[in-house]
Every structure is written in structure tokens, then in C-alpha cells.
Amino acid sequence: MKILRNFTKRMFNLFFKRKKDISLGFYGPPNAGKTSLANRICKDWTGEEIGKVSSVPHETRSVQFKEEVEIKYKEKKLKFKLIDTPGIATKIDYEDFMKLKMKKKQAQKRAKEATQGIVESIKWLDDVNAVVIVLDSTKNPYSQVNITIVGNLVARDIPVLIVGNKIDLKKSNVKKIEASFPDCEVVGISAKNGKNMDEFYESVFKLAKKT
Amino acid sequence: MPHQCTHCGEIYPDASEELLKGCSCGAKFFYYIKQEKVDELHKIREQIIELPKEDKIQIEKDIREITGMDEEPDKPVILDLESIRTLEPGKFEIDIVNLFKKDRPLIYNLEKGKYIIDLSSISPKKKD
Lengths: 211, 128
Prior knowledge:
- By secondary structure, chain A is of the alpha/beta class.
- Chain A has one domain (21-209): Rossmann fold (3-Layer(aba) Sandwich).
- Chain A contains seven helices and seven strands, in the order H-E-H-E-E-E-H-H-E-H-E-H-E-H.
- Chain A has helices at residues 2-16, 34-45, 94-98, 104-123, 144-155, 174-180, 197-209, and strands spanning 22-27, 64-73, 76-84, 91-93, 130-136, 160-165, 185-188.
- A six-stranded mixed sheet of chain A has the order 2-3-1-5-6-7, sandwiched between helices.
- Chain A is globular.
- The model of chain B has no long low-confidence stretch (mean pLDDT 82).
- A four-stranded mixed sheet of chain B has the order 5-4-6-7, with no helix packed on it. A three-stranded antiparallel sheet of chain B has the order 2-1-3, with no helix packed on it.
- Among the domains of chain B are: 3-46, no CATH class; 84-121, no CATH class.
- In chain B, a hairpin with a 5-residue loop joins strand 1 (3-5) and strand 2 (11-12).
- Chain B is of the alpha+beta class.
- Chain B is elongated and about 85 Å long.
- At the A-B interface, strand 4, helix 4 and helix 5 of A face strand 5 and helix 4 of B.
């Protein structure tokens, strides 16, 4: 009886699971532009934003979602659940926030919340079907945070797309990201001004196929 | 009169054999230096120059700019058994490699010898 039930469940999943929204997580170090990119996608397809963007790192300190975001690309449609996560870092120091004109108490609170946010981000990996890793293309991609994120996603068989954000800036170097992660697909974009978003959506559809 | 080899920089004291035969590096050109200048150089070499902290930071910044090297890459954080270490209020070190491990609870290090273990952080394995 149990075998039969399992079999029906599996067959049901096989035929209907694909119709479920694809949970797409946005991961990366702080201030890379995860929320900016998630906002850009949400605005393009739903007209609403997902969260607040700031130049002070660790602005997103809890996981934010947007359900039922339908993206169309070349007459194909896919529904996503977008999961925007807090930036992952190895060190959080309130004094860094104080340099950006924040008061001590406020900076310490932000640091604590940012640390909680990192724990939450990593826990959420159990609930994503695919991940977009957002990196700042003006910074050195070869860091402990980036390597650890990519390595863990690959080990967990979660499909990955790497986005090199901020290509509108002079110091941007997407080639360096490609060289650091030769086994991953890399797309250079500017979430701020919407540069190269077509190529990004094309890659997202390719990513969705792998789920 | 001491002489310095113009090729390798070796300084030979007065009336050295090398001045006639050639330097041990093979070169035969020497530059004459006054004895007092040589003594002065020796003195400077022995002196340790103490710089204020800001100057040291500025020097490092300048050199990195000159060489075109990136800013110093962040030191990797590898903690002991804990995933999160509190250094003082608002200062944290996070061992993300540890944090990614699913099979172990979250351990916070509050200070030397003080730990908090969050057992609820181990999610039960899902049944298939």
C-alpha cells in the first residue's frame, strides 16, 4: 500500500511540480546589488519593488520575498518566487558603519542584525531551487565569501548563475569574475541603469531549465 | 679609499685585491666613495625608523597604488568550533564555512571559554 502511495506521489510530482513557482535566491557579499537587481526584476514585471537600497552595507538584514513574479522571454513564460537575502560576510564591525556617519548604538544594532541576517541567508538555501550570485564587478572576486558560496551551491547541486553587477562603473571587470569561476555562467549587468538585462533574462531561463 | 662595484654594489675597503683584479661578480668598474660617507651609511642601516601609525598606513596605501595591487584582501576567517565569535558589542567574526555545514548546530563564542549552542538550528532531515 505504502509503495503504491509513494509511486503515485512521485508520478504526481513529476507531472505537476514544474508548474510550481521556481524559488530563485539572490546571494552574495554585502553591497553587491542583490536588492537592486531583485528590485529591477520586480519593477520590470510587477511594477513594485522588493526592498530598500542603500550605499551603507548590510541594508538588507532579513530575507525578503516577492511571490508570483512572471517573467516573459521570447514568448516563453515562467513564474518565480524571488528571495532576496542579506549579504554574507565574514566580519562585521560596527565601527565601519560609524565611518558612514552612524551613531554608535545604531551601528551596533545594525551589526547584530546583519550577523543574524547571514545565519538566516544560509538557512534559506534549503528552500531555493536556483541561485543568482550577485557580485560587485569592481571588486576582487576571489574572496573567501564568494568561493564558499559558489562551492557550497555546487556541492548541493543547486543551479547557479553569477552576475557581475555595476558594469556601468569604470573599474568594472567581468572578465576577472569569469576567470575566477570558469565552470559557472557569468553575466555582466548594471542593475542600477538596466544595462544588459536581456542577456540576464536569457540566462535566468537557462538556469530555470536546470531546476 | 673604499670603492663600490657599479654592477653588484659590493663595497671594497681601500687597497683590496678586487680593485685590481675585478669584482667577484666579474665587473671591473668601481665607484670611489669617501670613508666618512661609508661610515654614515653603516650608521643609517643600523637605525630603526619609527613611524607614526597613520604614516605607515599612508605609505602602504601609496605603495599599493604605485604597484597597482588591489587593497589588501580580507584575511580568511577560520574559527575553532564556533561559527560566530563576538569580539565586543557590534563586532563579529563569522566562519561561513562552518555556518554552511548542515549537520552541526550553530555555536556562538561569547568570550574565552563561554559558548552558546543553538540546538534548534539543526533542521531535522526531511523524509523522502
